[in-house]
Amino acid sequence: MRRSRLGADGSFGPVVLVPELNSPQVDQRPAITHDGKEIFISSNRAGTLGGLDLWVSTRTTTLEAWSPPVNLGFTVNSPFVEIAAAVSSDRETLFFGSDRPGGLGLSDLRSSSSGC
Fold first, then answer.
1. Dihedral through CA 32, CA 34, CA 36, CA 37, nearest 10?
2. pTM: predicted TM-score of the whole model, two decimal places
3. Which distant-in-sequence residues (6+ apart) come within 8 Å of 33 by Cβ?
4. How far apart are CA 36 and CA 7, in angstroms?
5. Are 25 and 47 in contact (CB under 8 A)?
6. Domain residues of the chain, as ranges?
7. What's 108's DSSP letter?
8. Is the separation of the CB atoms in 100 and 78 below 8 Å?
9. pLDDT tens-digit profile of 21-56?
10. Residue 83, beta-bridge partner list
11. Is 42 exposed, middle or buried, given 0-12, 13-18 or 19+ CB atoms closer than 10 A?
């Protein structure tokens, strides 16, 4: 049985910076896959296509540092804002919010499936 890393009172430990995932720009809304080997963030770091883009970082094991984040490109991102990524449990569909044109509100839920 896997033991929790929470303290006896249910608290977390001290807050630490994750330097390999941060930039001098906005880096926010992390979403990690269930196996702890992929993390998606929204960022307007250098290399963005416009607004906030979705980026992914990976690692081989949960004990390793994260790889440099990679922009998901125009397949997912647009010149507008993409935020709040979430991956389906089968890792086949990425859900996120975007304010790109053609939606129903100020920010709409979108999805992108692998293998399309």
1. -90
2. 0.88
3. 39, 87, 91
4. 20
5. no
6. 24-111
7. E
8. yes
9. 999 999 999 999 999 999 999 999 999 999 999 999
10. 97
11. buried
β-strand partners of 110: 96
Q: Report pLDDT for 108.
A: 96
Distance CA 80, CA 60 (A): 32
99 Rama class: left (phi>0) / alpha (psi -120 to 50) / beta = alpha
The tokens for 37 are 């080997």
In the block, tokens 């922009």 appear at 71
91-113 pLDDT, tens digit each: 899 999 999 999 998 999 999 99
Tell me the two tokens of residue 89. Answer: 């449990």
* 110, two tokens: 């979108």
